[in-house]
Amino acid sequence: MTPAAHGPVVAENKIIDGALLAERIKSDVAEQVRALEERGITPGLSVVLVGDDPASAVYVGSKERTCIELGMHGETIRQPATISQAELLAIVDRLNDDPSVHGILVQMPLPKHIDSDAVVRRIRPDKDVDGFHPVNVGKLLIGEKDGFAPCTPSGVLYMLQAYGVQTAGADCVIIGRSNIVGKPMASLMVQPGVDATVTVCHSRTRDLARHTRRADILIVAAGRAEMVTGDMIQPGAVVVDVGMNRIPDATKRSGTRLVGDVAFASAREVASMITPVPGGVGKMTIAMLMANTARAAAQLREVRS
Amino acid sequence: MTPAAHGPVVAENKIIDGALLAERIKSDVAEQVRALEERGITPGLSVVLVGDDPASAVYVGSKERTCIELGMHGETIRQPATISQAELLAIVDRLNDDPSVHGILVQMPLPKHIDSDAVVRRIRPDKDVDGFHPVNVGKLLIGEKDGFAPCTPSGVLYMLQAYGVQTAGADCVIIGRSNIVGKPMASLMVQPGVDATVTVCHSRTRDLARHTRRADILIVAAGRAEMVTGDMIQPGAVVVDVGMNRIPDATKRSGTRLVGDVAFASAREVASMITPVPGGVGKMTIAMLMANTARAAAQLREVRS
Hints:
Rossmann fold, 10 strands, 3-stranded parallel beta sheet, 5-stranded parallel beta sheet
């Protein structure tokens, strides 16, 4: 899923509008789904939700609803936190073998007694629409196109491309080295065709501001509320904020407020474009998951038994 | 294979001695081989050589000889350049199923009519001692320890650790984004425990010297003779030269001379330590291949049929 088919978007008030782009992707996916229906295929995503973490339940509900909204099958398989490793693997095996299931996603985090790596490795790589199976991680880094890239980093790259950000030769600095965002983001940005010069910073980086101040594209996925301030940003840089942090705010009825890893007001003064929180990267993740699921359905061949 | 068991090495005349470290690794591997022999296991490496490229023949011969020197089985399967894709895959399948073969390596490059990616993907990941199968690339990036890392980058990391180079918090700049060196090198350097701040530069990077001059550790795998000169290096930096280039030299009987990607004389003036070419990184690659093969033999369980 690339923004190539659409014209470039212009940022109003420097804001990169994740909601706008997510709607555009979803509308493209709905069209793919209609074309697949004509071939007798209804793309299907099965999400396995273990335990009763409220945040996970919200994410999963939203994934299921979006599937249905786009004409796909969406199912959530709910299991108690007491499920055994073997029982969970058996569910994955059943979904692997079910030809009506094109995408499988096991919602993280899993209870401590479960080996999450083993669960992710058990998912058929061609149904791994989260892009976390090692073989998909490897294909992403090598530059092989037939795997799945994780949804948040591919959403970020889509945003940059949709807004016409020049990536070739740009200094791209990424804060964070998680397997979910930082590392796959670096893998995407360094590929031929994207061609950024990529730096990955993290908790052990010395003098972080020295790196952020030379970034043409700054992508922040550190998980620390408002850690990047305007003075750390090069004038004219494009700033992408992957953070989602709840901080206390007495003026809100809930007593909290959602903020990113970037101090938005001071950063917008300096940046040429910036993603807000909420309404930025967060909106892209589910949209890219839908795009991956539709592609899985289009690509899937026989089911290995 | 890590240098932890040995004391730190001190660089004489600033030289990081690849030959010395390679001998040390090979001696450690020979000891592992003796221990495996006691369990009735002789580690075996099978190298498939297609066509008659003279450089490939030299590399492959050296791999086979080193195996035998260390008490392992080493075999080279020579095939004509006219071999079909199906025939080559059938050879890989046979080696996959052969319990006496613990490591499989298909020497690159392959003739143009062969799909190299498909051949690499066909090798069982737990026999892929070159570390090029996507699942091993993915495990390396994620930080899962049960895969195989490519031999040249793991040799470079071994060198840095053997010479006591501080990697945590260091600015590590890598020139080159190949799947064989640059990308896996970056994957290794960014992992927790190594903890470098990693930048990957390449042919599209603007103002390369601006990056190299801030590097505490500079790793050059660009494939261009003597492209990094002393004025591009930060005083006191550690310089690792992965390049191997033949350039004309009328003073030599062969008419050529082997040089790296770093202009050695001017770089040594500035660097605190540097790998020479030859005698540096090149020596490490085969040693790490032997280490991977011994580990494959120690880990390998039943053969899937």
